[in-house]
Design brief:
The chain is α/β, with parallel strands linked by helices. It contains 11 helices and 17 strands. It has an 8-stranded parallel β-sheet, sandwiched between helices.
């Protein structure tokens, strides 16, 4: 279940809002570790730390850190202030956060009877790595018809990483004002706003952050088993339903790849076909990027059955490569960059472009 190790911090490698990356000496040798100061305090060189090394032992790419569970000789002070939502519930590291929707919140009145997104476009994606590419499409020159730059909120589901602090992309996108805020829902935590459900998270994006567009996706590190239903991305289909029931306009970004070594993800991933084709019961605008050649033909053929319920919208990709190259964060999905899997990022950017076009309609 959990691999426990004791270690000593030898140096701080780097840090970003909400997280500190460390080098730690253990009996097994030096390792890279990650601490969330809001949970365990800020470790310093010389501190003894208790580590969970499960991800290291499994060789996980996205989550290949030892996680700092405690700094036992220097515990942080007790938390101060309000907050009654418990997240990571009934785990040894359950934490209380102040929910935007809870009683006592300054936003409770705005959310208590809120029931509509007022037609707000909501771009839905399988993987966290789609987020910056979607924003590239949203902000691409000409993609918004010359309108004022929209306010975009990211609503992070709990299918991947639970702490939003794990995402360096989120930290940088907020710093560059590409996001007006991050909302963590379900068991996820660490956003600018916390919400109990995806529904209240979406409503908070609209009525608290005053977002024009929301992007919904898991945090980094999705889970998949190679089976039809055993993957965390099924939540993309539920996000379509939540958006529709709240009178938003769901825009479905397809997970498309030309670089994945697994056939089930070549062209349109089976994740997208299951989530949008089987789980999503409400209609969405499913974006088909205008890709050339055999890949484009394959994508159109694979996506065709989705037209039974959804509107398939073909979106040109001209100019999107330049927009992606100008992204303020590193683009990477499953270890592949822009050049190794261009189709993936173009598909996400095309969904962002379509959301920008909806703002003018």
């Amino acid at each position: 279940m959990i691999r426990w190790r004791k270690g000593e911090v030898t140096r701080v490698r780097r840090e970003w809002p909400g997280a500190v990356e460390l080098e730690v000496a253990t009996a097994d040798g030096a390792c890279r570790a990650l601490a969330y100061p809001a949970l365990v305090g800020r470790p310093e060189p010389g501190d003894a730390v208790l580590l969970n090394t499960t991800a290291l032992a499994m060789g996980l790419g996205t989550g290949g850190y030892a996680m700092v569970v405690a700094v036992p000789d220097r515990l942080p002070p007790d938390p101060a202030g309000p907050g009654h939502l418990v997240k990571a519930r009934y785990t040894p590291l359950q934490a209380t956060v102040a929910g935007a929707d809870e009683q006592g919140s300054p936003y409770h009145e705005a959310l208590r009877d809120a029931d509509s997104l007022d037609g707000m476009p909501v771009v839905i994606a399988d993987l966290h790595s789609a987020l910056p590419a979607i924003l590239c499409g949203l902000y691409a020159p000409g993609g918004d018809g010359g309108r004022e730059r929209p306010r975009v909120a990211y609503v992070m589901q709990d299918g991947g990483a639970l702490p939003a602090w794990f995402s360096m992309s989120c930290a940088e996108l907020k710093a560059r004002e590409w996001l007006c805020g991050v909302i963590t829902v379900g068991q996820a935590f660490g956003g600018d706003l916390e919400a109990v459900t995806l529904h209240t998270g979406l409503l908070a994006a609209r009525h608290v952050l005053d977002a024009d567009v929301a992007v919904v996706a898991q945090g980094p590190g999705n889970l998949g088993t190679g089976t039809r239903w055993g993957f965390s991305g099924v939540c993309a289909g539920e996000a379509v339903n939540a958006t529709a029931v709240l009178s938003g306009r769901p825009v479905a970004a397809l997970r498309i790849s030309e670089g994945d070594r697994r056939d089930r993800h070549i062209g349109v991933s089976h994740h997208s076909l299951t989530a949008y084709g089987r789980v999503a019961l409400a209609p969405a605008r499913v974006v088909l990027p205008e890709l050339p050649g055999e890949l484009g033909d394959r994508v159109r053929e694979q996506a065709a059955p989705l037209a039974v319920r959804h509107d398939l919208v073909t979106v040109p990709v001209d100019g999107l490569l330049d927009a992606l190259k100008a992204a303020p964060v590193r683009l990477s999905t499953m270890g592949r960059g822009l050049e190794e899997d261009l189709a993936y990022f173009l598909a996400s950017a095309a969904a962002g472009r379509h959301a920008a076009d909806l703002l003018g309609s």
